[in-house]
Amino acid sequence: MASISTTLPLLLSLLLLLGRYHAAQAPQPERGTYIVHVAKSEMPQSFEHHTVWYESSLKSVSDSAKIIYTYDNAIHGYATRLTAEEARLLESQTGILAVLPETRYELHTTRTPQFLGLDKSADMFPESSSASDVIVGVLDTGVWPESKSFDDTGLGPVPSSWKGECETGTNFSASNCNRKLIGARFFAKGCEAMLGPINETEESRSPRDDDGHGTHTASTAAGSVVSGASLFGYASGTARGMATRARVAAYKVCWKGGCFSSDILAAIESAIQDNVNVLSLSLGGGMADYYRDSVAIGAFSAMEKGILVSCSAGNAGPSPYSLSNVAPWITTVGAGNASNATNGNLCVTGTLSPEKVAGKVVLCDRGLTARVQKGSVVKSAGALGMVLSNTAANGEELVADAHLLPASAVGEKAGDAIKKYLFSEAKPTVSILFEGTKVGIQPSPVVAAFSSRGPNSITPQILKPDLIAPGVNILAGWSKAVGPTGLPVDNRRVDFNIISGTSMSCPHVSGLAALIKSVHPEWSPAAVRSALMTTAYTVYKTGEKLQDSATGKPSTPFDHGAGHVDPVAALNPGLVYDLTVDDYLGFLCALNYSASEINTLAKRKFECDAGKQYSVNNLNYPSFAVLFESGSGSGVVKHSRTVTNVGPAGTYKATVTSDAASVKISVEPEVLSLKENEKKSFVVSFSSSGSTQDRVNAFGRLEWSDGKHVVGTPISINWG
């Protein structure tokens, strides 16, 4: 008995120790960053301020969670770290509209002013204070303030409307801002919550740009005039932004680890409060409904404040349904190829044998890895040069890169011919001739192969992209913290760099919007976008349609939207399709969004009128996306629109063209006589005969003309 009684306490102690050990080893629930959207109007009366309510609601589900950001302009709510269960419990509370997980966005990685006609039309754009009062906010990787593109010579005082500041941090002080770069902020809390503290030995925890992308986009939108700009002597000439007298405000939201939605919302929050006029975002993420998309939500709030938001369409082309940023209150910009041209082995790491390629020129195929990375692999293997061949995905589109060794890019046809020569010739030879920069290449522009394409996967009745702008081989300012290739082995440093992407086309439109805003400060964001879209062109001077560089065939509105931007014509569009906040709210009702989903976007209670019939087809958008039900495909679809005359009094007549023989398109009325600033409505009816279709999509165009102005809108027709 004595031995049993002695053993029992020992056994109990051992079990307790084992229990503690297992408890200590039990995995803790994983935490993630969440963005909490709240209905401020539902704050309990017991709280004096909404921030106290936020703290209390958070503490009710987690003792350890802290608020990362509090938002009041971009959204109503806050960002915090929670477990999935805590997020679920929080979302069930009264007044909490949604608890959305953090989203990681990616960047959509100078002769264009001349190409666009801006150099010939300086007298059409004001040099007065109105031009220099416009502020372009750029959400990107920050800014290299020493770039000549941000020289403030000739600019007057900072606009009195500006409420922002120049934040200090690693390698950046308030003195880095001036009358051109009037503000710079950085937002890292979301990134750090996900990935840990910023490594300040690798990147600056400040607005300073260590990547180059942000400096490039900011200088493209509103950089000052810089003569003698080039990249190693190529594309030599004058570099200038689209709106040279506009002011720049840089908001650094992208880090080596990515661009996180909590940081992006915090930047939009500040930009709204700072009083920017245009927001430029050359980034995107996965597709989501508008009430779950942080960029769409923040852009809605900016639009409400009269800020035009321009976003890149993405670089996932030429695949269909590859667009980003498709909300109708966002101007979605695809990429075209301007008239600049600078000259099956994938050449990935470990695939080249030095004994076979040393001292030779290597032919590589595009794909799988970055173009400049292929050059680095080829150089490391001891080769003297590289010829980079396009594949079917790239067609004949040539993209310039600052390679680490002598290199030349060729289109798919030339690449196939070179391969045929290599396989048929016992001792093939090669010479690379560098012939400098070629301008006036025809046809130009063409839709870039990489530019993302429609249809719109979220709302097919809204045609996207909106338009295209130069996005291939763009020369603009660069960061001295990184080489032109961005590769760690690249020790070269340049003032300007040539890169491509819808990241480059987006700031073109942002800057052009700033120009138009300076001439027409009273115009809404929708009116500015309408002017850019309805004056865009879809044919060359020869009368032939814009080409798609991926196929070599004519492009469609799913590729180019309304067409290629024409800023000179956009200053005087004749008619515009305007939109108000209430119009967008009606659009959300047409999508059958719930009251809480609308509240998430609009930041206020809005009840859809049960007695009103809402239709997505009637959003006053400057394009038409017509959907016939799958099956017979017959029936009639009607779209109503209203135009506002922003020019002199005139009479406009409608003309419709279409490549769909089985669809009859009629406009009622066909003639509109408008006084100055007068609004008039019309209805477009699309009648399908239901005959067998040999394709899913067809396209057309509606034009209103008074003999001087041509107000064009693209049409897409889909039979599901």
TrEMBL record:
Inhibitor I9 domain ranges (all copies): 33-108
Domain PA: 346-418
SUPFAM superfamilies according to UniProt: Subtilisin-like
Signal peptide positions on this chain: 1-26
Ranges where the Subtilisin-like protease fibronectin type-III domain occurs: 618-717
Cell compartment(s), UniProt: Secreted, Extracellular space, Apoplast
MF terms (GO), sorted A to Z: serine-type endopeptidase activity
One example of a Gene Ontology biological process annotation: system development
Main location: secreted
Keywords, in A-Z order: Apoplast, Glycoprotein, Hydrolase, Protease, Secreted, Serine protease, Signal
Keyword ATP-binding in record: no
Active-site residues, Swiss-Prot/TrEMBL: 140 (charge relay system), 213 (charge relay system), 503 (charge relay system)
Domain Peptidase S8/S53: residue ranges: 132-547
Superkingdom: Eukaryota
Biological role stated in the UniProt entry: Required for arbuscular mycorrhiza (AM) development during AM symbiosis with AM fungi (e.g. Glomeromycota intraradices).
Family assignment from sequence similarity: Belongs to the peptidase S8 family.
Descriptive protein name: Subtilisin-like protease
Organism from which the protein derives: Vigna angularis var. angularis
